[in-house]
């Protein structure tokens, strides 16, 4: 039997039943990677010798009667996480030989849960792209079409899952970096509520691994089923033991409902700042139809939804204000000069990004106060709805575009060319207020490319979108391996 495309849940059951060993699963995964990854280039740092040793240890532990959530299950880890003994570069050539001395907190949690780490997955330079390529490890291709991107920045992890290279992976998300690759590759991902999952050790190689809390950014699980997302989130969730973990534990509330017909869902497919392609609209419609067929209450509009245009501009400003904080002084001054030349009437997203790059502390506080008003608006919305379904990006996976200046790139939405980074506004919808969002496959485009949607839930009610994703999976198709 080929175990490589089984869910982690099924692998765990087979391991407990004695139908397979961790050594067998691990060898099968390694064989597949060595055979198929030359074309995909998802696994940039293999760690096969230690994986084999971990698999043998998992089998011995099970023989002793031990039970752990991921005992013996092969997984991968995004390159940006520290793993002792392996390079952490973020794709930046000056740090090609950087090797951290200890594991990231999430790598430690994976290992404590019994997972077998096969290796690291590829990332874009500095994790700052919707694609996955860098000068150290090269380009990762979409398993469905090697001429297209798997997304970024967790593109290597999504491509690995779609290719059968491990049952689970962990990634990160600041601008859709979990959800966009899942959408492009036909797998599942969950962006947790901001602050739910500790991120120490998911840090650039020139920075210390401190337990700092980062604005907008989260780390989270990727998988081939919604139930596997929940399994992995339960391993990952919880405060850092060096900070809040000294005083607080974690108890996530249960999902609001267990039956599809009890859910109240707002479905969106239009954004005021960018068009939505027909293939993505069709994916949203598949989910809406499945909700209606399952008896859920579905609405298409609500006056309670915080203004998505204002939210998109605010998200862009908050996103870039952190990205330029360490820019050299001369580069920062050049940005200030460019902003000074903007027309006061220029309300484009590109103008919002430029203005965000030079926000003063006073301006950032004002933007953050506006974010709090949006959070309050979402709280009100979630008194009337349990979840919001919407696109992750406006298109399926697009062809590789390695233009050295991302600001010069364009994204084509059904023939309409839009600035490359404008596609982030859908991902930013839950990111700006810090809400959880689950990306799920929702069919295929006419060209056969995967199409996904995201299910947004109330803050710290991560089990609600995850449960809705699980209930929808039989109706909307779920994961299919690339042909």
From TrEMBL:
Descriptive protein name = Amidase
Q: Where is the Amidase domain?
A: 24-464
The answer to whether UniProt assigns keyword Nucleus to this entry is: no
| EC number(s) per entry | 3.5.1.4
Record keywords? Hydrolase
Q: Provide any one GO MF term from the record.
A: amidase activity
Q: Could you confirm whether the keyword Hydrolase appears in this record?
A: yes
